Amino acid sequence: MTLLLSGPSGRLAQRIGPRKPIVAGCLLCTVACVLAVRIGPHAEDWTAVWPVALVFGLGLASLIPPLTASAMNSAPDSLAGLASGVNNAVARVAGLLWIAALPPITGLTGAVYADPVQFQSSFAQISWICAVAFACAAVLAAAFITGPRRPTPAPGSALIQTPVPHLACPVAFRRAPRQTRKPNGSGAPPRLPVAFRRAPRQPANRTAARQATAPVSPVLLHLAAPRQTMPQEQA
Q1: Three-state secondary structure string covering 8-60
Q2: Residue by residue, what is the 3-state secondary structure of the chain?
C-alpha cells in the first residue's frame, strides 16, 4: 500500500503543501492503532487484521513522502546528501528504540510471551501508546508545519498613451512616498520617473506612404536642385 501510493502522495503534497497530508497520515495511523486493540487470539483476519493493515498502510503512504520532503527541503542544496543521511539514520534509530522500549514498559518480557492473556493485554497497551503518539504528532504537525509559500509577483510597467500620437509613456507603478509639506503650507505631489520613447510615425494615408517609400530618379533630383548663377550672368 505504501509503495503504490507514495508517488501520488508526494505529488499531492507538492500541490497543497506538506501539513495536510502529514496530519491526515498521523490521524489514519491513530485510527489503525485503536483498531488494533481488538485483535486477540480468536480474531479473524478479514474482520480484524486486514482493516488495521489497510488503514495503517494508507496512513504511512500519506505521512512518509511529505515528511521526508520537508526534512530535505529544510537544508540547503549543498547539504542535501548530509540531510538525507541524517534523516534516514534518525528514522531507523528511533524505530529500533521504540520497538525495543515498548515491550518492557508494558511488561511483555521473558515467559510472558507464552501467556496468551498477558500477551494480549500488553499488545493492547502498546496499541494505545502508539495511538496517543500519532495523535500528538498530528497536533504538532498542524501547529508547526507551514504551508507552501506563494511567490510574490514582480512589479511591472504599464503603457500610457500621451496626448501626442507618436509618443508612448511606459510608467513603473510603485508605492508613492509620503508627501512633505513646505514651510508655507503647500505640498506638491511626488512625481514618478517617466521615460518617453518615440514611436515610429505613421503616414496619414496610403498615398503619402507610397510617396515616402517610392524611389526618386536622379534626373528629378537634378532638376529640383536650386540653380547657381555664374558671376558673368550676374554682371
Answers
A1: HHHHHHHHHCCHHHHHHHHHHHHHHHHHHHHCCCCCCHHHHHHHHHHHHHHHH
A2: CHHHHHHHHHHHHHHHCCHHHHHHHHHHHHHHHHHHHHCCCCCCHHHHHHHHHHHHHHHHHHHHHHHHHHHHHCCCHHHHHHHHHHHHHHHHHHHHHHHHHHHHHCCCCHHHHHCHHHHHHHHHHHHHHHHHHHHHHHHHHHHHCCCCCCCCCCCCEEEEECCCCCEEEEEECCCCCCCCCCCCCCCCCCCCCECCEECCCCCCCHHHHHHHHCCCCHHHHHHHCCCCCCHHHHC
Which pTM does this prediction carry?
0.59
- Cβ–Cβ < 8 Å for 48, 149: no
Q: Of 89, 70, 92, 84, nearest to 17 (Cα)? A: 70
Residue 18: partners with Cβ closer than 8 Å, 6 or more residues away: 66, 67, 69, 70, 145
Instruction: Find out whether 134 and 25 touch, Cβ atoms under 8 Å.
Output: no
Q: Could you give the strand order of the β-sheet that contains 157-161, starting from the edge strand earlier in sequence?
A: 157-161, 167-172, 197-198
pLDDT digit string, tens, across residues 191-206: 544 444 455 555 555 5
pLDDT higher than threshold 50 for residue 95 = yes
Residue 114's identity, in one-letter code, is: A
